[in-house]
Each structure stands twice: as structure tokens, then as C-alpha cells.
């Protein structure tokens, strides 16, 4: 398939012919029932773009061709799944980790000698992770009567489109399923039955920046680095190098939080202390 063929594949549902529409619908059905991915959280344009990535890789020049390819090549199922879920996230993903994080943040904010807290959400996707942390910080500031406490969270990602979504701060109700009702009420504005917008009070704490974890130097002077469900895309050597960058990013006593299926390894394993093995929380020792 040449460049001109891939350019002919429609980018929106409106541009599709009736045969394109028919096979696009079949693909959506496949994603929903076979891959068991909830497609309601995605816009059509996002799914079409991701399908085009796989169509290009498999040299298919129409939705029909790709649908047939998918049905006859079992190995393509996993590839499509990976391509579609690369940005998947939600508020307070893995609640047990967030319960530990609440205690860590509370200990920082309770400490009257401390005036500021810096958090880096590395590979933050559409912003659920950094905003979710901002909510925890605001709750702790209120509880500990520290209204002037200086907290800043930086969310970074390599993908500029997810960062645009993050800056908009509008989420489908499904993304909020782990949050208690009183938290939703306090920190979100209901736009309609399905969409909620994060309040300015939370937004104020969070800055988003494009950043490539592999190529760019790490941020500095961080108290907490969260890098969850990102390193799974990197090889072991790259992961080990990245852990050293996180060590460099952290202040002494700072915490590194990985995803539930991710484990610290390599040289960084000797540098960090394991704070909570189950929840994948590691601490940079105090000097
Ligand atoms: C599955 S999401 C994880 C979101 C969030 N951390 C969570 O756990 O819910 C993975 C994110 O990592 C980002 N990513 C992948 N490679 C990256 C890189 N080299 N530098 C920065 N971000 C990257 C992707 O764009 C994607 O948004």
C-alpha cells in the first residue's frame, strides 16, 4: 500500500462511504465484544486514527480489508488491543495504591516545617492521574488547615493530543467510577448526564507539558514521581535507565510510584528503599 492509499482512508465517519461505515461498525463491534474494550469513552475520530495505525502496519487500504485481515490473522488481535489502549487511564486507578498515596501526602502536608510539595505524573495521558493527585492534596490541605500550602503537579506525556484533552479537563462519567460521590460533587461540574468537568480549584494545581521520558532530561526537585503503566512499553534496558532518571528527579525522602504490574530493577533497585512492595512504592533514602 502506498502513501496515497493510506491518505484515502476516511478520517471521520462523515467522510465514509456506506461500505466503510458497515465495516467500521463491524470493527467497533469486534472491539467491544472480542477485545472487551469499552468504546464509549472514545470519540470516533480517536478510534479511526488508531485503526489507521494498524491498517498502515498491515498494509490494508480499507476498513473492509482490515476487518478481514483481523479475522484471519490471530496475532493482530493483540496488536490492535495494544494500539487502542495505549492511553487508557482513569481517576484513582488501583484504589489501594491511592490509599497509600493519601497517607504519604498527608504526612507531607501535616509536617509544619514543610511549605511545598512537587509531584510529577510522568506519562499522564489525559490528566486523570495528576488531577486525581491534586484532589488528594486539596483534601489534605483542608483537613490539616494548610490553605496556603504550595503544591504543584506537573503532568507530562509524549502525546500532544492526550495533553489537549487533559487541559480541557472534561471526562466521561465512567472515568470517575473510583471516586466517592462527595468527591465528584466537590471537585467536578456536571455538564450533562455523561460528562463532568474538573473545577478550576483542581486545575490551578496542575500544569501539563509535552515530554519524552526516553529522550528528555528528567524534571527536578520532585517529592513524588508517579510513572504508572508507561514503562510496559519500554525494553528492560530503557526501563533501568529511566529508573535512574527518576532517582535524579527526586528530592531525598521522595517517593517513586510505579504501576501495579511494574517492578523496579537494575542499578536503581540498590539506590531506592522499598516502601511498599505490593503497591510498587519506592523511596529515595534521606541523605
Ligand atoms: C496507559 S497510559 C498511563 C496513564 C496513567 N499514568 C495511568 O496509569 O493511568 C500510558 C501513557 O504513556 C505515554 N507514553 C508512552 N511513551 C512515552 C514516552 N516515551 N514519554 C512520555 N510518555 C509516554 C503514552 O502517550 C500514554 O499516554
Domain module count: 2
Taken from the alpha-carbon principal axes, the silhouette is globular
Q: How many DSSP E strands?
A: 10
CATH domain class of the largest domain: Alpha Beta
Strand content: 15-25%
Query: Helix- and strand-based class?
Result: alpha/beta
Small-molecule binders here are: S-adenosylmethionine
Helical percentage = 40-55%
Low-confidence parts: none
The largest pleated sheet is described as: 7 strands, mixed
Question: CATH architecture of the largest domain, please?
Answer: 3-Layer(aba) Sandwich
CATH fold description of the largest domain: Rossmann fold
Spatial arrangement of strands, main beta sheet: 6-2-1-7-8-10-9
The CATH homologous superfamily of the largest domain: Vaccinia Virus protein VP39
Describe this structure in words.
The chain is α/β, with parallel strands linked by helices. It folds into two domains: 83 residues, no CATH class; 189 residues, Vaccinia Virus protein VP39 (Rossmann fold, 3-Layer(aba) Sandwich), CATH 3.40.50.150. Helices cover 44% and strands 18% of the residues. Strands 6-2-1-7-8-10-9 form a seven-stranded mixed beta sheet. It has a three-stranded antiparallel beta sheet with strand order 3-5-4. β1, α7 and β2 form a beta-alpha-beta unit. α3 crosses α5 and α6 packs across α7. The protein is globular. The mean pLDDT is 94. The structure holds S-adenosylmethionine (SAM).
Task: Please summarize what this structure is.
The chain is of the alpha/beta class and 287 residues long.
